[in-house]
Amino acid sequence: MKLPLLAATSALLQSVYVSSSNLNNLNLQNALQSVLSASPHFSSSSSSPPNILLVITDDQDLQLDSIDYTPHITRHIRDQGTFYRNHFVTTALCCPSRVSLWTGRQAHNTNVTDVHPPYGGYPKFVDRGFNDNFLPVWLQQAGYDTYYTGKLFNAHTVDNYHSPHVNGFNGSDFLLDPYTYSYLNSTYQRNQDAPVSYEGYHTTDVITKKALGFLDDALEGERPFFLTVAPVAPHSDVNPGRALAGEIPIMTAPIPLERHEHLFKDVKVPRNENFNPDEPSGVSWVRDLPQQNQTVVDYNDHFYRSRLRALQGVDELVDALVSRVEQSEKLDNTYIIYTSDNGFHIGQHRLPPGKTCGFEEDIRVPLFIRGPGIPEGGVEDSVTTHIDLAPTIFELAGIPAREDFDGTAIPITDEFSGTRHEHVTVEYWGRAVVEGDYSGIGPDGLPQFPNNTYKSVRLLGEGYNFYYSVWCSNEHELYDLSTDPYQLHNLYPSTTPTATKEPQILGRSLSQVISRLDALLLVLKSCQGITCIKPWDVLQPGGSVSSLREALDEGYDAFYGEQPGVSFDWCAAGYIIAAEGAQVPLTTSRYGLPWDAWV
């Protein structure tokens, strides 16, 4: 819901930078507090803006049931709040996904599309101007104290951490490369101090102490706080030695805390239909993967157990954080958000451990939120994404949404009446990364596969549940997850279908459904702002169509049949528009919209 804020006040919040020095200006502080307390989400027992605690794990799956092995997270957040079970990332790789989360923008708009330069990592984040223009900076401008500990971005290193220092935090303690993923040899860098090595200490124990310290600082402060805790678990372990030697790191099973090493000895990767299937699935390099032998399957089970064990430290961390907030008596005015930067697969579609694909295992992630006004034990079916999280936090804090947000606030309370969407734009550029002891199976002998660039749309609406993708090889995938939940049967025809042989979906032929999905993807792959939220309005201005079902009306068949198709001219390693084929769709006016009217 939109907040009843005066335009002048909105401008004040958008333009005034509230630093630690000028917060002593009581008139400004009181004005900000008065505006922020107008949010309908605030606790009835407090006139203060709400506190926000965000926990982001690294590579945590939803589809493989990891959330069933974290009892403290379940008890403190899931059971006391709402589970958003249709929550997706928009890029299944950590750095692009995190930048999208922090900016509310798709990766094709941030142009941070990889984990390392030239297409990604912390240097690209800085080069794109986001160090001065992302969520913690905006929250500071709105009167929040902000804190962070753990992993922020890849390529944030012991050499470049001060070039420049990360903006936007009153207190910070970042993990730094090449030690970020070393469970027993991590390096952290506090505020603007020099990096400190914690070799010999488990990184989850280290971050727990740092997080509780920042939480104490936040709870003792006079202003509302935003604290992010970003443990590295259950990400694979990476020995920094290879990176220091200039070699490609090898990612191996995560290392749990010693007290958790004995757990789950009989647990195995869920044996769903897509686990190491007898027949190949997918397209491109995925379809060429051999079936895994028993040695590899056994290793995958070991890898899976190691991930669950590594998560136990995160579960204890969350227990400690929530217990500390409870002791402060500020829990009733605190929102707690739990999620991950991307999902993970192990053995599905014959894949070794990893992410970077558009399959459900990689793009669905946990999202639990508890706080004032949020139903306890709730389950929300609305489609939500990581680019919706910054707008949601703005909504919670009572800040007007930014025009450059590609997402929209998610349903927080039963009274939510904001804009919803049925689509997720999933995009990826460059190489697929595979992990584990059996990962060195790429065509060049390295744990990577080239040409993993694709654009896709995940669509969940009334009576339909689709995933449609176009790869840079111009191969296509179409899965109907209502009948094929494990994405084993690609419906996209290998030859042009005949009218008598085409299957029927939603009462229409397969080719008619594909024409709509392709047109929708054509808009979404280059959308900005409101066009990312309401893409059908680009195709059919005037609001006559707002869903796939409405677009399938027979009267629109000729219009969708004339659309330029989504395609690639070559497989680029980053977002290069010249490689990505047609950009602007036709509209029902038959004249097309000018580029700057919708992009």
From TrEMBL:
Gene Ontology molecular function terms on file: arylsulfatase activity; glycosaminoglycan binding; N-acetylglucosamine-6-sulfatase activity
A Pfam family: Sulfatase
Entries under Gene3D superfamilies matching the protein: Alkaline Phosphatase, subunit A
Origin: domain of life: Eukaryota
Enzyme class: hydrolase
PANTHER family recorded: N-ACETYLGLUCOSAMINE-6-SULFATASE FAMILY MEMBER (PTHR43108), SD21168P (PTHR43108:SF8)
Protein name: Arylsulfatase
Family the entry assigns: Belongs to the sulfatase family.
Alphabetic keyword roster: Glycoprotein, Hydrolase, Signal
Catalytically driven reaction(s): an aryl sulfate + H2O = a phenol + sulfate + H(+)
Domain Sulfatase N-terminal: 50-399
Positions of modified residues (3-oxoalanine (Cys)): C94
Post-translational modification: The conversion to 3-oxoalanine (also known as C-formylglycine, FGly), of a serine or cysteine residue in prokaryotes and of a cysteine residue in eukaryotes, is critical for catalytic activity.
Biological source species: Penicillium cosmopolitanum
EC numbers: 3.1.6.1
One Gene Ontology term from the biological process aspect of the record: phenol-containing compound metabolic process
